[in-house]
Structure formats: structure tokens, C-alpha cells
Amino acid sequence: MDVLTQCVVGISLVLFGIYGFIAILIYSFEREDKLEAKRRNEIIEYFTSNGFKYNDISTIFPNAVRDFNIAHTDKKGYFVKNYIAETYGQRDGVDITIVDHRYIEGSGKNRACYEHALCLLRNQDIKLPDFYLRNRIFILDSIKKLFGMKEIIISEDKEFSKKFVLQGQNEEEIRNFFNSSIRQVFILNQKRGCEYESKNNSLMVSKRKYFLFMTAGYLNVKERIELLENSLKLFNSFKHQ
After folding, report:
1. Taking the model in full, what pTM does it have?
2. Please, are residues 82 and 100 in contact by the beta-carbon 8 Å criterion?
3. How would you classify the pairing of strands 112-122 and 94-105?
4. Helical H runs in the chain?
5. Using an 8 Å Cβ cutoff, are 69 and 197 in contact?
6. pLDDT for 76-104, tens place per residue?
């Protein structure tokens, strides 16, 4: 094989590799679009048939959701889609809003994109203190405490304080609310990737999907239904307080 032939073969292999890479990218994007369209259609079919209203919005964050810290609306590049809202009183007297949400933290090499679902529940007859609750991350939270992280420890319930980090400004009001029955409800309904925030007598639940130790995209329709049912069950337990 002469030099010219070798050059032609080499260039051909390089071009083949480039075209192959481009083809894989195009296939991946098309497949992702098809899967997302399938997920969206399944969400629409289930929730609209169960009394929900559906709006597919990409940039407008619902005002009711915007004020919560776990919504991360202060982050760069946030947008919301697959917005589902149930009219007030159709589900046990609870007004429910569910959205898919994506936000970006950092920039350059440190840029990270996060996706989660937000479920907001409101009932004018249920009064809640403002609080934040999440699963405890032992090593990370131990380091945070060294740097001044504040939390409310329920000394009489070691199991609860071992499982969760509880925070809020009005400690006395929060302690009175988190009695033994409420603490047990949270323990029994503990889910990986869930955060809880109460504000203005409303409860927001954030749910992330994980694969091993990494977040893994938006919830599918089955996981969305589980988020709705678990959040509603938890919220309704507050009625008896």
C-alpha cells in the first residue's frame, strides 16, 4: 500500500468515525425526545382523566411554587414543564400542584444540572408552622455542623433525629407541631430523595430520582402518582393536629 492509499484510507476512517459519532448523537437526541413525548402523553392521559388540569409550560413558574426555597428559583437556567394542577376541593379538600423542574448550579467545569418534581399541597383549614425537613446525610451533615449548621434536635426521639434534619426559625412552634404521631408519620413515609418545606400553611414536597448515587432525570408517570399519593397521605395526617 503506497503513501497516497494510506492517506486516503486514514482520512476515510476519520470521516467514518466523525459521521458515526454525529449519527449516534442524532439518534440519542431523537430517542430522548420520543421518550419524553411518551412520558408527557402518559402524564396527560392519567392526570386529566383523574380531574387534573394540564398546562405544558417551559419558562413561567407558578406563583404558588415560586416562594419555596426547595424550588430553587434563584438558580441559573431554571425552567418548569409538565405543570399539573388540581382545582381546589377535588381531592379531599386539598389543592394540589405538581411540576417538573430543572435548575442549574455552577458554571464551566463545575456546572451541574438537577431535575426533580415538586408537589405543593394547600388546605385553608390546615395550619402549619414554617419548617424544612430532609433525610440526614451523616458525613456531610457532620461537616456542616462543624461550620455552624443549625437544626432542631428532638432529644426524646433519637430515631427521628437520626433519620432527619429539621430546621426552622420558630423552634417552639415547630417542636409543638412535631409531636410523636407526626414524627412517626414522617418516619413511616420516609422516601429517598425527598425534601419537605412548609410555608404559609402549605406543604411542598421535592422528589428526586436516583440511579445509584446520581440523580437520574424526571419522574415517570408511575413515580409521579406515588409522589402524589404519598404527599397527600402525609398532608392529610396533619388534619388531626
Report:
1. 0.77
2. yes
3. antiparallel
4. 3-48, 63-66, 138-146, 158-163, 171-177, 180-188, 221-236
5. yes
6. 655 666 666 554 345 778 888 888 887 77
